[in-house]
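yo, ADP-ribose diphosphatase is done. seq:
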Amino acid sequence: MIARSDESYFPPVQSKMVLAPESEAKVIATEPLADSEAVWTKLVKKIYLDPKGITRTWESAERRTRPKASGIDGVGIVAILEKPTGPEVVLQKQYRPPLDKIVIELPAGLIDEGETAEEAAVRELKEETGYVCEVIESSPVMFNDPGFTNTNLKMVHVSVDMSLPQNQNLEPELEENEFIEVFHVKLVDLWEECIRLEKEGYAIDARIANLAEGIEIAKKFRL
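structure:
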């Protein structure tokens, strides 16, 4: 997401939710999940032929939520605010029960039935952060952990007109079970911020780490 405007159009992020590593959110029990109870995921056994023609099996996980007419599960949203003090990326803090930690993430979400990845990105950004945006471009389909799951996503780059009243007085539309704190980090400081936040007890989403590492590589090799 790219936004170009005067400094006056960038009010501080007003987030009602403050999520720290010592948050009261925590896992209180872990137990096996029966397939009949599973709403979001399922485990499957793949029977396949390897390159030598030998029959083998593979255990993997799949989402139950992928739209029937879509080959994509969800979207991640690249949100860069171009400010006079330097470009900043829009990030989120969100508690994730599988890790039992607050995670530093890009805005993201699942695609609804009948939506394109781009439409989902516009909707999810508005719901999670309050920002109104327009799509610039989308990435190829990316796979998160292909040795474990077929879950995938597109990274959608969007632009934000910071002169719009909606983007100065943000009104997220979070669901009852969503607890998200929105904040910005300067791109030039993203790697150091990831290190600092991890030391404070946060978990770092791989997409954030990859973006930060890519910036550091570009600096090192002057790309």
